[in-house]
């Protein structure tokens, strides 16, 4: 997805935090599994992967991840896209960190 990063590094091991990964998976499963979603492609990366947004009930799923504290805003892509409001993402990230 564009504008967000969900992986967090476990400082103790230097690897990915499995508890965080499990929370993200469960959140995605609860909100996306067997639901009608809309996918909006923003760009294609240099490897040919589509980069974009997932909308569930007219709400940006990436923003939902940020609001829940499960993802961080990836500011380089968030500031370039015209699809979302970068300020809205940044405000949601600050609220989640509080």
Task: Write the topology of this structure.
Layout: E1 4-5, H1 18-32, E2 37-44, E3 50-56, E4 59-60, H2 61-67, E5 72-73, H3 75-80, H4 86-97
Antiparallel strand pairs: 1-5, 2-3, 3-4
Describe this structure in words.
The chain is α+β, with helices and mostly antiparallel strands and 98 residues long. It contains 4 helices and 5 strands. The protein has helices at 18-32, 61-67, 75-80, 86-97; strands spanning 4-5, 37-44, 50-56, 59-60, 72-73. The strands form 2 sheets. It has a 3-stranded antiparallel sheet with strand order 2-3-4. A hairpin with a 2-residue loop joins strand 3 and strand 4.
Question: How many distinct helices?
Answer: 4
The main pleated sheet reads as: 3 strands, antiparallel
The termini sit apart by 24 Å
Q: How are the strands ordered across the major sheet?
A: 2-3-4
Low-confidence sequence ranges? none
